[in-house]
Design goal:
Blueprint (H helix, E strand, L loop, with lengths): L1 E9 L2 E7 L4 E5 L6 H11 L15 E9 L4 H9 L8 E9 L4 E5 L2 E3 L1 H8 L3 E4 L1 H8 L4 H6 L4 H32 L1 H18 L5 H13 L1 H15 L9 H15 L4 H30 L4 H21 L6 H16 L1 H47 L6 E8 L10 E8 L7 E2 H4 L2 H16 L6 E5 L7 H15 L3 E5 L3 H6 L2 E10 L2 E8 L2 H13 L6 H19 L1
Parallel strand pairs: 3-13, 3-14, 8-12, 12-13
Antiparallel strand pairs: 1-2, 1-4, 4-5, 5-6, 6-7, 9-10, 10-11, 14-15
Length: 566
């Protein structure tokens, strides 16, 4: 449950802290005092859309913090465990702040989290019912989710299985359609692939061929220069012209000269040996130069062939958008795609069977879900009729119709739900949006919440303006119903009705005051004596209590206390 709420710099609130109790907590006060700010702050705390206009004028950021007791909340404890978080003495603090740039920061137990994670955690802590939910009840598209929310575990398993089967059917159908589209272009694609295969295979491309061709072309284009340089180097080593300054001849002369004196000193022999090594190494280089000269011929025909080869590969590369070195791989991929086309008819037959089976599986689950919804609709209609009778709407019936969708299924099944209201016996049932008054919608929503409270595991519920269009005896019945809901969980309720205020276990007064020339909203936990005064104000409608209203207020509190005891 929500134990403590801190609000700072939100609208008219400068800073306030309020502690809530178990059971029924009500917030009262004059219109415009700031009661809605409390609910809006809780909404903001649990992940509602943030609007920087909520920040108090002159402040840099708004901040809301809530302390929640999760000691008996299994869902919340599981969430914390799964996300490596801990509760401190059974409590966890969640907070959210919003700056003037529109950026919000969320925290769970002091750890910064994203908004989706905050929402997921908060959904196990508190449920807020406000005017927007009234409107959703009037929207026929939301009726399906309203009905499913009352289903038991088996019903929710059917929901999950139906969604899973629909996804399998949807995915299979998408694959089948994609293959059908591919098959429709089969002939054109086949011709293109066959031409591609023929053209690339005829070129016989090889991996790494482009670099080799580039080097060959470079050599062939500079053949004259290369040939002259090789010949010059060879002549410098060998005496091809009979000159006496050839390298080998000079080295041989030096080696012979040192041989004559090698016996006189070991150093002379070492020098001779080194020259001998250089001689044989130079001789080897000369032979390699001779081989290079013999093998290198500037053949114009060879240059033309290499150029044509490069041009061919470049043309194919540009045509198919594939680098030259990847043409061999492209040929393999083309061969594989051609083989796939050969088996496309078999794949179509196989996929068609998969789609049919997936649709059959989906229909089976959707059918079971429809049956479950029909049973649930009968049960819920009966329970709502009972609740509405207790809420001073005897003879009123809510009919929940389950009928098939016109389109082909969905992840939520084949059903469309319509809620029809017959407010009086003998009258034709009509859609809620066309017939229900504000008071009827408020009581209908309270009936739904009352039923859900009996099995809903969310420990806290917030009601904002649940008393719209309600007065007289009905107000007392609604107050009793609110207390009955509060037997199961903590309830926070904003109200203008004295009957609901009297029924509360704890009452809080929201007031507007001035501080340093600015309007500020504050909240106060009322004692029993202060509750009598506030109830007197609510009864009489005047700021000053009268003797009769004080007596009436005291009487209402006693009656409420007696009702709670019994």
């Amino acid at each position: 449950m929500l134990k403590q709420l801190l609000i700072r710099n939100v609208a008219l609130v400068l800073e306030l802290t309020v502690c809530f109790d178990r059971g029924l907590n009500v917030l009262t006060g004059e219109t415009g005092a700031g009661k809605s700010i409390i609910v809006d702050s809780v909404n903001f705390l649990i992940g509602a859309r943030a609007d920087k206009d909520m920040i108090r004028s002159g402040a840099e950021k708004a901040y809301v913090e809530g302390v929640f007791d999760v000691s008996s909340n299994q869902a919340a404890q599981s969430f914390l465990s799964e996300n490596d978080m801990d509760a401190d003495d059974g409590c966890v603090i969640i907070s959210r702040e919003l700056n003037t740039a529109g950026r919000s920061v969320c925290r769970i137990g002091g750890m910064a989290v994203n908004l989706s994670l905050l929402k997921a955690f908060a959904s196990s802590l508190i449920d807020i019912h406000g005017q927007h939910e009234h409107q959703s009840l009037l929207n026929e598209r939301s009726h399906l989710s309203f009905l499913d929310a009352f289903g038991d575990t088996a019903h929710h398993v059917l929901l999950s299985n139906t969604a899973q089967r629909y996804k399998q059917y949807h995915d299979a159908k998408a694959k089948y359609k994609a293959l059908l589209d591919k098959n429709a272009q089969r002939q054109e694609r086949l011709q293109w692939l066959q031409a591609k295969r023929k053209e690339i295979s005829s070129a016989k491309p090889k991996a790494g061929e482009e670099e080799g061709l580039r080097k060959s072309l470079e050599n062939l284009r500079n053949a004259g220069k290369i040939s002259r340089s090789l010949q010059q180097a060879y002549s410098a080593i060998y005496d091809t012209r009979g000159d006496s300054d050839a390298a080998l001849r000079l080295l041989k002369t030096a080696m012979g000269a040192l041989s004559e004196i090698a016996g006189y000193d070991e150093a002379f022999e070492a020098l001779r040996a080194r020259i001998e090594t250089v001689y044989y190494e130079t001789e080897d280089v000369g032979m390699e130069l001779r081989n290079a000269i013999n093998s290198f011929e500037a053949d114009e025909g060879t240059l033309q062939q290499a150029s044509e080869r490069m041009d061919l590969l470049k043309r194919i590369s540009r045509k198919y958008g594939t680098p030259i070195d990847n043409l061999a791989q492209a040929l393999e991929e083309t061969e594989m795609e051609l083989k796939q086309f050969e088996s496309i008819e078999e794949d179509l037959i196989r996929l068609e069977g998969t789609v049919d089976q997936a649709l059959k599986n989906y229909r089976q689950q959707a059918g079971l879900l429809t049956q479950s919804r029909k049973r649930l609709a009968l049960f819920l209609s009966g329970r709502i009729k009972q609740e509405l009778t207790e809420l001073n709407m005897p003879g009123t019936e809510l009919m929940i119709e389950v009928h098939a969708l016109k389109e082909e299924g969905s992840s939520t099944g084949d059903d469309q739900i319509t809620m029809l209201l017959a407010p009086n016996r003998g009258e034709e049932a009509k859609p809620l949006a066309k017939i229900a008054s504000g008071g009827e919608v408020s009581r209908l929503m309270l009936a739904l919440k009352s039923i859900s409270a009996e099995h809903n595991v969310i420990p806290s519920m917030v009601f904002d303006e649940i008393d719209t269009g309600i007065s007289g005896r009905t107000a007392q019945v609604v107050a009793e119903k609110m207390w009955n809901i509060a037997k199961y969980r903590q309830v926070l309720c904003v109200t203008h009705l004295q009957q609901i205020a009297a029924m509360a276990g704890s009452q809080y007064l929201v007031i507007k005051t001035e501080r340093e020339g600015r309007t500020v909203s504050e909240i106060k936990h009322l004692s029993r004596e202060e509750r009598v005064l506030e109830l007197s104000r609510m009864i009489s409608g005047y700021s000053k209590e009268s003797a009769s209203s004080l007596i009436h207020a005291e009487h209402m509190l006693k009656e409420a206390e007696e009702y709670r005891r019994t």
